[in-house]
Design a protein that fits this description.
- This protein is mainly alpha-helical.
- The protein has two domains: 413 residues, no CATH class; 145 residues, Transcription Regulator spoIIAA.
- It is 65% helix and 5% strand.
- The chain contains 31 helices and eight strands.
- A six-stranded mixed beta sheet has the order 4-3-5-6-7-8.
- Helix 29 links the parallel strand 6 and strand 7.
- Helix 8 packs antiparallel against helix 18.
- 39% of the residues are buried.
- InterPro entries: S04_transporter_CS, SLC26A/SulP_dom, SLC26A/SulP_fam, STAS_dom, STAS_dom_sf.
- This is Prestin.
- Keywords: Membrane, Transmembrane, Transmembrane helix.
């Protein structure tokens, strides 16, 4: 043990470097370096190059657009097929009940949730790059779709319209409302898919970075509250209108409470029983995760039990329990979405497109990092766009990645997109063959499934304490995203949260940390003098650092902090000089008047006294006058023109990423102002892109030269010390 410690100590002693070189400023360094010659391409050449096609390039683009052509021929059947089959079946049995349940959130009949669980999932197999995410219905997106559908087709409008045509059958009334809402949901899916497809083709996959983790978590937590309140009416068997837009949560809760006395006891008992079974099943799956070969599919078990109990006891007729109802057998022929609705839902489509992509790509990145492969964000956009736009022709609404199903697909041994394809095949079997068996399924069972699946989202309330300890700004983003989405609706709430997140970025750049750096003795390392005891300031040199770029929004605060931290304000120094000069001029004038008065007194006395006797007196007066003048000259010498004990100021540009025209003018003004008070300003560690920006902004002239810029802080410090020694000699 002692030998190992000695070896480590020896290594620490030997790990040193010593470089002897001259001090480099940018002028000197650029003079010794030779730039690589680059022939700039014209716009025509760039277009011609991008349009040029070869067999290799065409093959690369084809494989990029259809990833299945790349991985399917190399699919290891013996190693992957069994895992994909088990994973596909496990995910499929979750896909079925969730598709039925989330259709209620989207304000469309349950069968359309099955369509959304088949077409997009199958299409993603061909175009997606993630091997583990499960595409399909998701609570947050379904809730956003339902909010738009209810806003465009509220109950009151349909009711008034159809009462005027003497349609009294309640089934006709609801079917008419549902048909119109399906049109809205389908058009929304088509438009959001087209937006995603265009963003992907234009390589705009980076837009998801503006949805930060605190924003997404606050938004999804608020969405969970929206989902929970929207399911209360189904869970309790209460007949209320569905609300959307501002304060929809408040109106929904108020509507439920106002009719709480009409609760259907049978529906409540069935719902509570299902909630209990689902929670028990999830707890068993969590505790015995390693021992169970596959998770217990409690959702499909609850659906089967609920359907059997409802059919056996005739809950609809005997107790008035609402059931799923008609599930048409087979697939619908493709139809074109309603183009006239696009203008009304365009903004909502943008929000759904971005949120859907953000959730899918974030989950895909987690699995890709865990299993050691890469995903293409732009191709994910294209894949989601195709899933939504093409699926809309077959009456599916907007979809994205489901977190719960993705975790099941990955944990049950899924290796490739084949697992997702198999899960869609299971949904297809239900649509084609056995869909009618689920018609007696009580809606309260679907509400129970949705509510229990929100458990993970409600746990995100714990983020408040986490962000309180780590970052108050991220906590503010979370709270704003939650509150805005809760009370303004998911669409306007998301826009508000994104705007607030952008404001926090501006706030951080406008309110950065300013530091004075000092040197660790006998090293070229510089740290904050207020943080470490060993760090000492270089005599006569101030090193100023701001951890932000310099641009129009923070240039004024940058200058103010520079003067405050260094203790040198050129304007105050110059004002003090002017004031001292004026005072000196007044004193000199007063001394001259005093001398003149004394001379006049002497001349008056000469007239009344003998000249020889008064010579000495005259001489005394003369010496007194000279003494007054000498005192004023001494005061002039004693007058200090506001000199500081700082001869050099170094601006550390290591954190600076860019400088705009206002920042360049501010920087130039700082250099000239400090030069007037005999303080030389240097810039250290300026990156190449920032140097190019300064050059384009005509920053350099006869006064501000490249000699003031240094490659490193240590170069700048040594240069300032050499310059000071030369000036003192």
């Amino acid at each position: 043990m002692e030998h190992a410690q000695e070896h480590e100590a020896c290594l620490e002693q030997t790990q040193r470097y010593c470089v002897e070189r001259q001090i480099y400023n940018q002028e000197l360094l650029q003079g010794q370096l030779h730039r690589r010659e680059r022939t700039p391409q014209t716009l025509r050449q760039k277009i011609a190059r991008s349009c040029r096609c070869s067999s290799k390039k065409a093959k690369s683009h084809l494989y990029s657009f259809l990833p299945i052509l790349k991985w399917l021929p190399r699919y290891p059947v013996k190693q992957y097929l069994l895992g994909d089959i088990i994973s596909g079946i496990s995910t499929g049995v979750m896909q079925l009940p969730q598709g039925l349940a989330y259709a209620l959130l989207a304000a469309v009949p349950p069968v359309f949730g099955l369509y959304s669980s088949f077409y997009p999932v199958f299409l993603y197999t061909f175009f997606g790059t993630s091997k583990h995410i499960s595409i399909g219905t998701f609570a947050v997106i379904s809730m956003m779709v339902g909010g738009v559908a209810v806003r465009q087709v509220p109950d009151e409008i349909i009711s008034v319209g159809y009462n005027s045509t003497n349609v009294t059958d309640s089934l006709d009334y609801y079917s008419a409302r549902d048909i119109k809402r399906v049109e809205v949901a389908v058009t929304l899916a088509f438009l959001s898919g087209i937006i995603q497809l265009c963003l992907g083709l234009l390589r705009f996959g980076f837009v998801a970075i503006y949805l930060t983790e605190p924003l997404v978590r606050g938004f999804t937590t608020a969405a969970a509250v929206h989902v929970f309140t929207s399911q209360l009416k189904y869970f309790l068997g209460i007949k209320t209108n569905r609300y959307s837009g501002h304060l929809s949560v408040v109106y929904s809760i108020a509507a439920v409470l106002s009719k709480i006395t009409t609760t259907n006891i049978a529906a409540l008992i069935v719902g509570l029983t299902c909630v209990g079974l689902l929670l028990i099943g999830k707890e068993i799956n969590l505790r015995f995760k390693k021992k169970l070969p596959v998770p217990i599919p409690m959702e499909i078990i609850v659906v089967i039990i609920g359907t059997g109990v409802s059919a056996g006891m005739n809950l609809r007729e005997s107790y008035g329990v609402d059931v799923v109802g008609n599930i048409p057998q087979g697939l619908r022929p493709p139809t074109v979405p309603d183009i006239q609705l696009m203008r009304a839902v365009f903004v909502d489509a943008i929000a759904i497109a971005i949120v859907g992509f953000s959730m899918a790509v974030s989950m895909a990145k987690i699995f890709a990092l865990k299993h050691g492969y890469t995903i293409d964000g732009n191709q994910e956009l294209i894949a989601l766009g195709i899933c939504n736009s093409v699926g809309s022709f077959f009456r599916s609404f907007s979809v994205t990645c489901s977190m719960s199903r993705s975790l099941v697909q990955e944990s049950t041994g899924g290796k490739t997109q084949i697992a997702g394809a198999l899960s869609s095949v299971m949904v297809l079997l239900v649509l084609v063959a056995i869909g009618y068996l689920f018609e007696p399924l009580p809606q309260t069972v679907l509400a129970a499934i949705v509510m229990v699946n929100l458990k993970g989202m409600f746990k995100q309330f714990g983020d408040i304490m986490h962000f309180w300890r780590t970052s108050k700004i991220e906590l503010a983003i979370w709270v704003v995203a939650f509150v805005a989405s809760l009370f303004l609706g998911l669409d306007y709430g998301l826009l508000t949260a994104v705007a607030f997140a952008m404001i926090t970025v501006i706030y951080r750049t406008q309110s950065p940390q300013y530091r004075i750096l000092g040197q660790i003795p006998d090293t070229d390392i510089y740290c904050d003098v207020e943080e470490y005891e060993e760090v000492k300031e270089c005599p006569g040199i101030k090193i100023f650092q701001a951890n932000t770029s310099l641009y129009f929004a923070n240039s004024e605060s940058y200058t103010s902090a520079l003067k405050k931290k260094t203790g040198v304000d050129p304007c105050a120094v110059l004002a003090a000089r002017r004031k001292a000069r004026k005072r000196h001029a007044r004193e000199k004038k007063a001394a001259a008047e005093l001398g003149k008065k004394a001379t006049n007194d002497v001349e008056a006395s000469v007239k009344h006294e003998i000249a020889n006797d008064d010579l000495t007196v005259n001489g005394k007066f003369a010496s007194a006058d000279a003494g007054v003048q000498d005192m004023s000259l001494d005061e002039c010498k004693h007058f200090v023109e506001a000199k500081t004990n700082i001869h050099s100021l170094i601006l550390d540009f290591t954190p600076v990423n860019f400088v705009d025209s206002v920042g360049a003018k501010t920087l130039k003004s700082v250099i000239k102002e400090y030069k007037e008070v005999d303080v030389c300003v240097c810039i250290a560690s300026c990156s190449g892109p920032v140097m190019n920006e300064l050059t384009r902004l005509n920053f350099f002239d006869n006064i501000v030269t490249r000699e003031l810029l240094f490659h490193s802080l240590h170069d700048a410090v040594l240069a300032c010390q050499v310059k000071d020694r030369s000036a003192s000699q």
